Amino acid sequence: MFTTTTFSSWDLKSEIKDGLASIGWEFATQVQTETIPLALSGKDVIGQARTGSGKTAAFGLPTMNACQTTGELQALILTPTRELANQVAEELSAIQGNAGLIIQTVYGGTDLEKQARSLKSGVDIIVGTPGRVMDMTNRGHIDLAKPGFFVLDEADRMLDMGFFPDIMWVIERMTSRSQTLLFSATFPQEIIDAANEFMNEPEFVLTNTEKLDIPPIDQYSVRIGRANKLWVVGRLLTRMSDEDQTIIFANTKRMVDLTVQKLKKNRFDADGIHGDLSQNQREKIIANFKEGNSRILVATDVAARGIDVDGITLVINYDVPDDVDSYVHRIGRTGRIGRKGEAWVLVGRNDIPQLNKIIATHSLDIVAAEAPDLPEGVDREPVRKVEDNSEAADVFGMVPIMIATTSMSKFAIVDEITSSLNCNELSVGDIVINDDFTIVEVHNKHASLAVRSFNAKDIVASIIES
After folding, report:
1. If residue 443 lies in a helix (H) or strand (E), which one and from where to where?
2. Helices 112-120 + 130-138 axis angle, to 10
3. Same domain, 175 and 262
4. What global pTM score does this model have?
5. Number of helices (H), then strands (E), in the chain
6. How many domains does the chain have?
7. pLDDT at residue 339 greater than cutoff 90
């Protein structure tokens, strides 16, 4: 990921170079090496790079180098989310050293007038989301005719979220725009077409072939149905020490809320964070977690951006991520500064193809494991395991059961199940009598009862796991 090119080799302001040195940044990443010299020369640049490859500094350093400490808006950086806007602003503030540039964030979900007052006192660079920038422009708090530098970050996500009409609205009003930088992990045709409209003979830099850094941590997967995922989580959390912290990743806001609710019901103190919370709520939760006052955080990928906490020793993927790179970014939250770390992923039958894709893409060593044992001295399950045969069921809900007999006819088997369980014949599916055993399909609702009924009659029966 890193090259032999040093930041000191570029014509950056001395304050910025000092700022980079003060935080220990010496060598540039691949995307920085290929884009920063082009941007410093004044060219428009389109950069393709994954999240985590150093692209914030790739556009941030040329942006700050082009700005003066005038208190007049000179650069606008658009990001798709409030969390990313905060993350970008924090990183720019850290690497500018004593340059003295005023960097303000502008995004929805927080007090607009408060943001407007901050802008009135002077701003050199705005990092914001499209909707709030449009709103504040219409209200007269932002003059888009002023900035000459424009950055569009994570353009593909902007497209997915339906922001491109808003972005074009902003660009049309940036009449003094002289340089544009656009960064994206992928380039759908719509982005390329739009870029050709508002960029001036841009230089393309493609560094998306970089391998993501895989943290040196232990990785495990557990095959489990959704009904018992919380049972596995409970065992994992019980193994934590008082100093340990964990992030549990879910794919949706709804699943974050449900998981937090279930954890609290089982006496685990957990906080949840996602995009539907107010900015004040999110900032309070993040600050509480960073300060070590809370130990369990349930989050979506977007909401977890910028959460870098050294005490995280455990990452749990409650859901297998939809994006293959997201898995690496998730597990990268643990194993910091030489600490021991673990990452667990809970895998249902339908998740197997996606997990295999993640493993193949990044050449990962994820060990298939059972749910961990309870720690010594703990004899009570923190979360009760429920009976769940959904992983063994087919799309029609039928569960295959193997019974150790060949002497019963198909009619006798159906009669035994329907009379013992008081269910109708539709609850029994295909029956295959082999030389040594018989397989009968029973609906998920009755499968466990059917097994117990056969066993009670000294006929050995068991569910066939997929």
Report:
1. strand 438-443
2. 70
3. no
4. 0.58
5. 16, 20
6. 3
7. no
